[in-house]
Structure formats: C-alpha cells, structure tokens
Amino acid sequence: MITNEQGFINSEDRCLICLKSETDSMDNPMVTHHIRYYPEAIAWVHSKCHQKIHDQENPLTTFIQYNIGDPEKFQSEKKVLD
Distance between CA atoms of 18 and 51, rounded to whole angstroms? Predict the structure, then answer.
C-alpha cells in the first residue's frame, strides 16, 4: 500500500470505497478513516462509506487492519507529542 508522508493512501477528491468524487453531497462529507495505525495508513472516504466500513453486522474488514486498542494507543501517543 503506497502512502504519502502524512499516511494518506488516496486524495481528498475521491472516496476510496465508492470511488465517487468528494462533492457527493452536503449530508455525506469526506472524512478520514484509519485503515491501520502502525504504520499509519489513512483513507479519505464519504461519511456514509465510513459507516459501511464499521457496520456491526457486515464490516468491510479489508479496511480495518488494526488490533483492538491501537486507536487508543495511537491517540495517547499523539497527545504526548502535541
């Protein structure tokens, strides 16, 4: 997976999930989704596509490549650096 210096694997102008442009609609803005935290890989996705990734009954597990506790550990480490 190719990432830039900030960890993004795609640009803000196209959703990684549905591949539609960022101007989809005002009620479905682009948001960031951490695919993994170590090493960091972040994707731009529509808000509704983000909900699909984390769907309780049928998550898109390809886009969840982190362990339980990684988000909290990452945020804790980020606070120390800020």
Answer: 12
Over the stretch 40-59, which tens digit does the pLDDT of each residue have?
999 999 999 999 999 999 99
Task: Find, among 20, 21, 27, the residue nearest to 47 by Cα.
Answer: 27
Number of domains the chain is built from:
1
Q: How far is CA 68 from the centre of its chain?
A: 16
Residues near 29 by beta carbon (within 8 Å), at least 6 away in sequence: 46, 47
Strands (E), the chain: 30-37, 40-46
User: Tokens 């890989």 map to which residue?
Assistant: 41
Domain of residue 28 covers 1-82
Taking every pair of Cα atoms in the chain, the longest distance, rounded to a whole number of angstroms, is 36
Task: Give the predicted TM-score (pTM) of the model.
Answer: 0.83
- Average pLDDT, integer, range 29-37: 95
